[in-house]
Amino acid sequence: MRTTISHICARGLGLAVLLTLAACGTAPPKSGNVSMPHGGKVKIPVRQDPTLPALPAAGSGRGGYYKDDGPGDNPPANLRDVPDAEVRNEPYSTRSNRPYVVFGKTYTPMTDNEPFTQRGTGTWYGKKFHGQRTSSGELYDMYKMTAAHPTLPIPSYARVTSIDSGEQVIVRINDRGPFHATRVIDVSYTAALKLGFLGKGSHQVIVERLLPADIDAILAARAAPKPVPSVVARSIDTPPESEPEMRAVAQPEITSLAAVDATVAAPAPSALATGFYLQLGAYSRLDNAEAGRTQLAPYAQTLGNLDVVPAGPLFRLYGGPFGSRAEAARAAASLPASAGIKPIVIER
Fold it and tell me: How far is CA 94 from CA 23, 86, 172, 273, in A?
């Protein structure tokens, strides 16, 4: 999948690149050879998680992944439930962000806070590099949400959107690569699973750098108290016409578009036509929702119609409609970081 330069970075970015690395992390459980009475051996296959796509074995040369790379022998359970990388603002590594040369091309890592969005082919890397040291000094774990990029700062974070599936993940950039003209990022096995391209080996993706302000907004949204509905219980014998009214506890006002978290996302109400939409905000007051719509008016050409729709105790701001999830994801990824929002793709 990628040509790793982690060992080069450890020596101050030398001139040569290690093209082949043996996997050397904690060895996963292997299939065993059981001796038979007649002297022969029977290979016992490793059991795979049935929820994962069936892939050719690592090193078979038959997968969409690169040559001798591939899946591990015994992936952990519930990988689809692995959360995005835990973002935090931290200083960039001096050693890992120096200019370097690979295959005669000079790469200059970013060290400023300028927005960065890139579209191209995303690939994944797995067992071949599992347990190897990355450019950041961390050990690569194919089951965590990480990625390699030629120039994004180390360490930093990026939102990756699959053009085909519309799925989005946030990954930690902790290594260098890929060094191929058409490839823009190498994500981990688990990130590729969640983006939907494990079997194919690659997808067209949009890579969006998360700036310090973006990370602050995400952390603030996660720290904000979430609304907890309180429902008055009733007997199953109570007639529908006498059903008590549902109540909700008071909710904190969302004063910033950047403070909208995915946990408040809900299906678009029937007031919207069928299609895909971007949820751009959720507010407890109508006037604040209207203010949010006014704030995003300059991006109407990208976001489509901006509609404020009542949804229970909240007023949700939507953009759209879009013809497909991928189209909605492209619109979301094209918004500049300065817009201060994290759109959520929904389908009605």
Answer: 27, 22, 17, 51
